[in-house]
Every structure is written in C-alpha cells, then in structure tokens.
Write a structure and sequence with these properties.
The chain is 59% helix and 11% strand. By secondary structure, the chain is α+β, with helices and mostly antiparallel strands. It has one domain: Up-down Bundle (Outer membrane efflux proteins (OEP)), CATH 1.20.1600.10. The strands form two sheets. Strands 2, 3, 4, 6 and 7 form a five-stranded antiparallel beta sheet that branches. A two-stranded parallel sheet has the order 1-5. Helix 10 runs antiparallel to helix 11.
Length: 480
C-alpha cells in the first residue's frame, strides 16, 4: 500500500511539471506616431528622393543598394558578406547563441552516465571485518540516471531565455550586416563626390591656366600691371593645391572600402568616376511599420523577453526541486561471474531539495532579475525613439537638400554668368583683374557646393534606408 502511495505522489509531482511561476511575457508598449513629422507636401514626392509608401509600392528590397543603379557599387556590396571580418565575428556569435539553446534543452532530459571499473585490492589484516588480510577483485559496470522534474518551469524558462537570446543575436547580426553595407555605400558616394570635385578642379585649373596666359599676354603688351599676373598665378596655384588635396581624402575612403570588403588597401583600387547619379525614390512607409523593419529594435525587444524569462528562473529558485535518481548495473568478483544475472544491482527513488536559508541570496537574485527586466524595457523604448529620430533626421535632410539643390543650381548659373561678364570686361579694359578673381572664386565655390549637396543627398538616402531597416523584416528572425 505504501508503494502505491509513493507512485501516486511521484505521478502527481510529474503532473505539476507543467506549472510555471514566471510572469507571462507581453511586448512593452512604445509611443508610435501616426505619421512622420517630416512628411513632405505633394510636390516633394517626385523629386526629393523619397515618398510615403502606398499599397502598390514595392518595399525596400534586401539588396537595397541596387536601387542606386551603380554597377560598381553593386559589385562592392556583394563582396562584404563573404569577406568582412566584423560580419564573420557577428555570425560566429549567432552560432554560439544557437548552441546555447541545445545546451539548455539538455536539462529537459535525464542524464545517463556509466563508469566501469576493475579493482584488485588487498584488505588490511588489522581490520575487524570478514576477509581481513585477504585480497579480492571487484568488477563493476554501473549505470546512473539523474533527472530533475521541471516542477516550476526553471528549465523551460532557461530554454526560453536561450531562445530569445538566439533571436536577439540574429537581430544583432542583421544590424551589423545593414551597418556595414550602409557604411560602404556612404564611403563609396563620398569617394565619387571627391572624383566629381577633382574633375571640377581639373577643369578649373585648365581654365585658370588660360587666364594666366591671357594676363601674361596683356602684361607683355603693357595693357596690365604685373600685379594682375601675380594674382592670376596665385589663383591658379591655390586651385592646384585644392585639386591635389582631394587625392588624400579619396585615398582614405578607398582604403576604408578595401577594409570593408576584406582586402588589404595596397591590393585594391577604384578607377575615378565623377558622381552623376541622383538619389533614388525610397518608400518610407508608416511609423508603426518601423517596429517590424529595424533589426536593432527586434533585438532589443527579444532581450526584454529574455529578461522576462530570467525573472521566472529567479522565482523558481524559491520552490523545492524534485530529483529522480536511479542506479543499476553489474557487480562481480571475477570476469566469469561479472555478467551473470545474480551480479545485477539497482536502486531508484525520488528526492526533494529545498533551500531553507541562504541569507537573502534568492531574494537578491529575484530583485536583480526584475531590475534587469526594467532596464531592458527602457533600452527597447530608447532604441525605438532613436530609430524614429534617425528616420525623421534623414527625411528632413532629403526635403531640405532637395530645395537647396534647386537654389544652388540657380546660384551656379548666376556665378558662371557673372564670371563671363567680368572676364569680358577685363579683356575690354573696363574692369580690374580683382573683379575677375572675385568672380572666379565665387563661381568655383558655388560649383563645389553643388557637388557637395549632391553628396549629402546621396548619403542621406543611404542613411534613410538604414534608418528604415534596409530590406529586413522581423519575420526573418529564426524560430529556434
């Protein structure tokens, strides 16, 4: 009768294994605007480089850099994933997190071990037990089984926490991936902008060289003072210095691109090609969609879930543990009787383990887990706020730069016309060379500003794509 009661107790304890003392997880709420503040009026939607996505619009593609329609950029972007060492390190951490799921799942199964032994021993003659002073052999083949019944969900919460960390690490991997591709695109457009700057300066040096020749001829003919010739030469050499200086900056961006694609800088070069592309149209979508499109937001949210599971693990420590142990095997005195049926032995039974006093260690662990949960919730909300800010910043940049580009184009045309008039007046003896130099400086400054605005628009387009999460979606997170 006592055996039946023991069996009923064990079965009841197994039935309790579906219990869980941890809090049920809910995704924290975040303040989400209904629309972006920097949404443009209708006239911007066609020429500012972006627009609010409509149902018929295609979402940002995973290979979003192809939207810029630059073959060289596409070629470089494809080389990041096979060769970038930072990405390889993130991928290794991802695999490590996946292995931890298997590690924690192992606690859901019994541990079975064996330790066969063969002993030849001699008992002391000065002992008071049968066989003293005699030798004996002991052949043992034990098998031990140990299993913790997961009464309060400690094991389940451990597996859950490992799974959430795995998904968070998957988001981290995609965040690194997106950042590296974005960094390469920005570096590439910076380099192409410098190519455009150099092309402009090369052309300007050619123009200023002709201006020096004109001034030299006028000076030789007595129609201009030597000061005019000195000013013309100064303007030419100053522009040549600016032209040379672009090479140093270009080399730095070229080296940065080489590092991103896993190549030594000395083995890598990009032929010069002035930037002439315009920003592509980028579908922005609604603010609520950003929570599904940013891998860093997904990572932060998964770590909130992980912290919630850790609270459950800490609470389970307040309750007793049920352990099922079993041992059996064969024990003989010689090889001939080692594997005989009478050599068998076994023992099986449950045991309970309850910590009666630990000086407040479990309570401190529980309080720490709750504090960590609160911290991860705050981090999640801050990550979301930062994401909205980044989108708004780049929307504003594209909108303002679109207006600035139009105005700057008008300024360039006016400066070129002013330079032409000043040069003609100087040739006719109606103006000093100082007027020409002033017009040259204004024209060059405006032309370089126009090139720089295009660079900023391209950079803002890349950063907007990055702020929107690229072509990623939370559905891409692995399940286990």
């Amino acid at each position: 009768m006592s055996s039946k009661k023991a069996i009923l107790v064990v079965l009841s304890l197994f039935a309790l294994a579906n219990c869980s003392v941890g809090p049920k997880y809910k995704v924290p709420t975040v303040a989400t605007p209904s629309a972006y503040k920097e949404s443009p009026p209708a006239e911007y939607k066609e020429d500012a480089g972006w627009k609010t996505a409509e149902p018929a619009d295609a979402v940002i593609r995973p290979k979003w850099w192809e939207t810029f329609q630059d073959p060289k950029l596409n070629e470089l972007e494809e080389q990041i994933e096979p060769a970038n060492q930072t990405l390889k390190a993130a991928e290794a951490r991802f695999r490590q997190a996946r292995a931890m799921i298997k590690f924690n799942r192992a606690d859901q199964f019994p541990t079975i071990s064996t330790a066969p032994s063969v002993v030849n021993a001699h008992a002391s003659a000065n002992t008071a037990f049968a066989g003293a002073g005699r030798g004996y052999n002991e052949f043992t083949l034990p098998i031990d089984l140990n299993y913790e019944v997961d009464l309060w969900g400690r094991v389940r919460h451990s597996v859950e926490a490992a799974r959430e960390e795995f998904q968070a690490t998957a988001g981290d991997l995609q965040t690194v991936n997106l950042s590296l591709h974005s960094e390469l695109a920005v570096d590439y457009f910076e380099l192409r902008s410098l190519d455009a700057q150099k092309a402009l300066l090369d052309e300007t040096v050619t123009t200023y060289t002709r201006a020096v020749e004109l001034t030299q001829n006028r000076y030789s003919g007595g129609l201009a003072p030597k000061a005019d010739l000195a000013q013309a030469q100064t303007q030419l050499e100053s522009t040549r210095a600016q032209d040379i200086d672009t090479g140093q900056l270009r080399a730095q961006f070229e080296h940065a691109i080489a590092t991103l694609i896993g190549k030594p800088p000395e083995d890598f070069s990009i032929p010069p090609l002035p930037q002439k592309l315009n920003p592509p149209v980028i579908p922005v979508g609604m603010p609520s969609q950003l929570l599904e499109r940013r891998p860093d937001i997904a990572s932060a949210e998964r770590r909130v879930a992980e912290a919630n599971a850790q609270v459950g693990i800490a609470r389970a420590a307040f309750f007793p543990s049920l352990l099922i142990s079993a041992a059996g095997g064969l024990l003989g005195s010689s090889v001939t009787n080692w594997f005989n049926w009478p050599s068998r032995f076994w023992a099986v039974g449950p045991s309970m383990l309850q910590t009666a006093f630990d000086g407040g260690r479990r309570r401190a662990t529980s309080e720490g887990a709750i504090a960590n949960y609160d911290a991860t919730v705050a981090d999640y909300r801050q990550t979301t706020l930062t994401a909205f800010q980044q989108v708004e910043d780049n929307l504003a940049a594209l909108r303002v730069l679109s207006d600035e580009a139009k105005t700057q184009r008008d300024a360039v045309k006016a400066a070129e016309e002013s330079l032409l008039l000043a040069t003609n007046r100087y040739k006719g003896g109606l103006a000093t060379y100082l007027d020409v130099i002033t017009s040259q400086t204004i024209a060059l400054t405006n032309e370089r500003t126009e090139v720089d605005i295009l660079r900023r628009r391209m950079d803002a387009s890349v950063l907007l794509v990055k702020a929107l999460g690229g072509g990623w979606n939370v559905a891409s997170l692995p399940k286990s």
